[in-house]
Design goal:
alpha+beta, 17 strands, binds zinc ion
């Protein structure tokens, strides 16, 4: 076979586990708490003791519905709980409570951009299930188990295999992460495993007229975006090379397999053959009643849904006159966007406020590696600074200087402006005196300006600069220029 006719098309789908931001677990009252003393957040339910009965935490379903709705899924009006056989020490009941044939949500779609193009991924389903505990391997001689995480609510989102490169998957995953955290559905801290990604990858290889598909591999439990990109790139190359070495096998002849990601080797490693649904022996949980989602519950979730980022960006562009880039920067963090809206509510001019956010507020946030909201300045003070600038009471330089002072004090911007002598001089007589001073002190520049020669404008600018300096930047530049022109007869 000749190499030039060979084309490859990767097919990538994802299973994503999103830890729902509830205070307590899915089927018991134990606190969800990362980093607590091992086995200190457990009860008979978590330990799988006989007789312990599950009680559903409705808040978990409410959060799950919020994300599913934002993913344009159809929410089931009737859903139920199933037991999935699971024989590992990190879930002592020996089954996981999940949703099998009647998931909470189905048939959604999610748009994102990659390489400047809009792409869509179809969402096959999203269901709620409980998490397992953690096996601890700190002591090389033994394995210990911490059951604090057992029973933590998860939303598992399953996509169709609509992604075709590591880059595209990366763009999708980061955007989904942003949406889920924006909605407050999860805290989304990747290092704590609050969002875990499992790509299913295979490659369709066309060799002339013949088409082959490599066996599907699922890479388990990726909790960094770097790992997602690395694992997919590695699998595409590994599967393509393996097929080229022995292109007699296809997906039908080889079982699916589970692999893990080795961060140090930058490679995936074989774990085990992938189970099929029948291996899990799902059956309805007899201890839990099915869940009916009525109109009232659905409407409440809809009413609580915040304005979604795309709509919010569009509004900041169309109603507030911001550029698309500036709007995206502000909306990237929900608390910052809330602060922006709150400052507008207090009377700040949106366009000027946008300038303040993008110039100095963003700069101070970057310096502190925080968001603008995390700078801790309330909407009232942020609005007041923009109002002072909008009314011409301070100029742009003074606004930036006052902003810097606001970070260290709780004083109002107007008080800072006064204390620092940064208010623009409104008194025309005072400015006139400074103009006269500048004219008297710079006869040469005055002569050139009056001559009307090539350099007159430059000299006028020089004189204006002199006045601004004398006023420590507090004179309105336009008025200074007008006065100079009048006095010099220009
Ligand atoms: Zn418990």
């Amino acid at each position: 076979m000749s190499a030039p006719t060979l084309t490859t098309r990767p097919l990538i789908g994802l299973e994503i586990h999103v830890q729902l931001a509830t205070r307590t677990k899915l089927f018991c009252g134990c606190r969800v708490e990362f980093g607590a003393e091992p086995n200190s957040r457990v009860c008979p339910m978590c330990l799988g003791l006989p007789g312990a009965l599950p009680v559903l935490n409705r808040e978990a379903l409410t959060l799950a519905m919020r994300l599913a709705m934002a993913l344009n899924c159809k929410i089931a009006r009737f859903t139920k709980w199933d037991r999935k056989s699971y024989f590992y020490p990190d879930l002592p009941k020996n089954y996981q409570i999940s949703q099998y044939d009647l998931p909470l949500a189905e048939n959604g779609s999610f748009e994102f951009t990659c390489d400047g193009e809009t792409r869509t991924v179809r969402i096959r389903r999203a269901h709620v299930e409980e998490d397992a505990g953690k096996n601890l391997h700190d002591n090389p001689a033994i394995t210990q188990v911490d059951l604090n995480r057992t029973g933590t609510p998860l939303l598992e989102i399953v996509t169709e295999p609509d992604l075709h490169s590591a880059e595209e998957a990366y763009a999708f995953c980061t955007k989904l992460h942003k949406l889920a955290t924006y909605l407050g559905v999860t805290e989304g801290v990747m290092q704590k495993g609050q969002m875990r990604f499992e790509p299913n990858i295979n490659v369709v290889i066309s060799d002339g007229d013949a088409e082959f598909a490599t066996p599907i591999c699922e890479v388990k439990n990726l909790n960094s975006f770097r790992a997602i990109r690395g694992a997919i790139d590695y699998e595409i190359q590994r599967q393509t090379e393996a097929w080229q070495k022995d292109h007699h096998y296809t997906a039908n002849e080889q079982p699916k397999e589970n692999r893990g990601w080795d961060d140090e080797k930058n490679a995936t490693v074989f774990q085990r053959g992938k189970e099929e649904a029948q291996d899990y022996r799902y059956f309805p949980d007899p201890d839990l009643v099915p869940v009916v989602i009525d109109d009232e519950w659905l409407s409440a979730v809809k009413a609580d849904m915040p304005e979604l980022p795309a709509a919010r960006r569009a509004r900041l562009v169309s109603e507030c006159g911001l550029s698309a880039k500036d709007a995206a920067q502000i909306v990237a963090d929900r608390a910052t966007a809330d602060l922006f809206d709150a400052a507008i509510q207090r009377g700040a001019d949106p366009k000027l406020l946008g300038k303040h956010f993008i110039s100095f507020w963003a700069k101070h946030a970057n310096k502190r590696e925080s968001t603008i909201a995390e700078l801790g300045i309330d909407a009232a003070r942020i609005a007041e600074l923009a109002i002072l600038a909008g009314d011409g009471k301070i100029n742009a330089t003074a606004a930036a200087a006052i902003a810097e002072k606001m970070l260290e004090s709780t004083d109002r911007p107007s008080a800072i402006a006064k204390a620092e002598g940064l208010e623009q001089i409104q008194d025309t007589a005072a400015i006139e005196a400074l103009v006269d001073e500048a004219i008297a002190g710079n006869p040469k520049a005055v002569e050139i300006a009056k001559s009307g020669g090539k350099k007159w404008e430059k000299s006028l600018g020089f004189l204006q600069g002199q006045v601004m300096q004398k006023s420590r930047g507090t004179a309105p530049p336009k008025l200074v220029r007008e006065l100079l022109q009048k006095k010099l007869g220009l």
